[in-house]
Design goal:
This protein is an alpha/beta fold. It has a domain at 5-194 and 227-253: NAD(P)-binding Rossmann-like Domain (Rossmann fold), CATH 3.40.50. The protein is built from 13 helices and 12 strands. It has helices at 14-26, 65-75, 89-94, 97-120, 123-128, 161-180, 202-212, 231-244, 261-275, 304-310, 318-331, 333-340, 343-352; strands spanning 5-9, 30-35, 55-59, 79-82, 130-136, 184-189, 191-193, 216-219, 225-230, 250-253, 258-260, 286-289. The strands form 3 sheets. A 7-stranded parallel β-sheet has the order 3-2-1-4-5-6-10, with helices on both faces. A 3-stranded mixed β-sheet has the order 7-9-11. The radius of gyration is 20 Å and the shape is globular. The protein starts with a strand and ends in a 13-residue tail after the last helix. The structure holds nicotinamide-adenine-dinucleotide and thymidine-5'-diphosphate. Residues 9-10, 12-16, 34-38, 40-41, 61-63, 83-87, 102, 106, 134-136, 166, 189, 191-192, 198 line the site of nicotinamide-adenine-dinucleotide (NAD).
Length: 365
């Protein structure tokens, strides 16, 4: 008998490609992977699946209703997992329009198509069907130093255009459940790190700059706190939510691992010193640059619901995950070069050029 399919959107990006890989490793579900291949999506993230007959890659937009309808019709998925999004806060500050287009309008178009499809299913298929929307803790805004971590009941207070666009999408997903009965699940996860993360995000950027002896640009005082989770732990959590979560519910996923940005950069410097003693001490490369406007001070997730309802907790410690991540980047220079080609240099100039020329990441260390 043929395997049931899942439709994964944004599966050529960082988390999506890790998710698709782990689903195909188990080989219980076929994957139809719909991705627009923006600056963040790369087929290089999926090279090991190139010959996998259970992985069908389609280059396209979640906002293209004709395409999405055709894919639903052809592959009859038992679930949809929606990773597709514009995802980088700094890009949302410099150009918010694309965030509204994909994260809000695109997600809504996808929901409309999925609702039509779900209504066409027979009752046993419709009962088992799930739409999992992958979202972020950034919808909850910023915590004070003494505040308890975000729960599923925390108020939405998004501060960046990225967070606001994800919040809008979350509300639409919820509305499609409340109004039309679509069996949705929403997850709000903290900061991920690990293999295949785009080189412009904090941890890969610092690894790449550190190896190259370039400055390590820390926004503002660097005391902002994030709650870090290894990407495979996130993927495992999503599998549990998809298979055992209750329709209509939201689940917060986090690493119980609060670190300041400066802690992270210093820890990376320590690891770089070990790997490249000639460049030590890498802390000499740390440069404080102009802060991000509206920069959230602290995120932290209370993941008790995940633990109590689904028995999930993170398995990879931060120390082990960070060391593994650094090793992965060191062993994959070809991947870094391929996904950084062209547009990445322009991005570095756009984002860092105006902050403080002496401290821009391209400047000599
Ligand atoms: P990413 O930017 O690496 O990947 C996003 C993918 O979506 C890319 O492959 C891109 O090509 C694709 N895409 C963009 N617009 C599209 C469109 N209109 N149609 C189809 N595909 C499109 O992002 P990521 O870090 O892998 O995040 C994936 C999801 O998880 C996002 O929804 C993000 O909001 C959420 N999330 C990310 C984190 C994190 O720390 N990275 C944490 C919590 C939640
Ligand atoms: P980022 O990886 O962009 O994730 P997010 O903003 O979604 O949390 O950034 C993580 C943190 O690192 C955030 O507080 C901003 C900070 N940061 C820097 O200090 N310097 C940088 O060059 C980058 C990219 C991020």
């Amino acid at each position: 008998m043929q395997q049931p399919n899942w439709l994964v959107t944004g599966g050529a990006g960082f988390i999506g490609s890790n998710f698709v890989r782990s689903v195909r490793r188990e080989a219980r579900f076929g994957v139809v992977n719909l991705d627009k291949l923006t600056y963040a999506g790369h087929l290089e993230n999926l090279t090991d699946l190139a010959d996998d007959p259970g992985h069908h890659f389609v280059c396209g937009d979640i906002g293209d209703a004709t395409l999405v309808d055709a894919l639903l019709d052809e592959y009859r998925p038992a679930a949809i997992v929606n990773f597709a999004a514009e995802s980088h806060v700094d890009r949302s500050i410099l150009g918010p329009q694309e965030f509204i287009q994909t994260n809000v309008v695109g997600t809504h178009t996808l929901l409309q198509c999925v609702l039509r499809y779900w209504k066409s299913l027979d009752s046993s298929q419709a009962d088992g069907f799930r739409f999992l929307h992958v979202s972020t803790d950034e919808v909850y805004g910023s915590l004070g130093p003494q505040d308890p971590p975000f729960t599923e009941n925390s108020q939405y207070r998004p501060n960046s255009p990225y967070a606001a666009s994800k919040a809008a999408a979350d509300h639409l997903v919820r509305a499609y459940h409340e109004t039309f009965g679509l069996p949705v699940l929403t997850t709000n996860c903290s900061n991920n790190y690990g293999p295949y993360q785009h080189p412009e995000k904090l941890i890969p950027l610092m690894i790449g700059n550190g190896w190259a002896g370039r400055l390590l640009p820390v926004y503002g005082d660097g005391r902002q706190i994030r709650d870090w989770l290894y990407v495979q732990d996130h993927c495992d959590a999503l599998r549990l939510v998809l298979e055992r979560g209750r329709a209509g519910e939201t689940y917060n996923i986090g690493g119980d691992c609060e670190r300041t940005n400066l802690d992270i950069v210093q820890e990376l410097c320590r690891l770089l010193d070990q790997a490249d003693p000639a460049g030590a001490p890498h802390t000499r490369l740390i440069a404080h640059v102009a802060d991000r406007p509206g920069h959230d001070r602290r995120y932290a997730i209370d993941a008790c619901k995940m633990q109590q309802e689904l028995g999930w907790k993170p398995r990879v410690s931060f120390d082990a995950g960070l060391a593994a991540t650094l090793r992965w980047y060191a062993e994959h220079p070809g991947w870094v070069a391929a996904v950084s080609a062209g547009a990445h240099e322009r991005w570095l100039e756009t984002n860092y050029g105006g902050r403080d020329p002496a401290a821009a990441p391209g400047a000599a260390g």
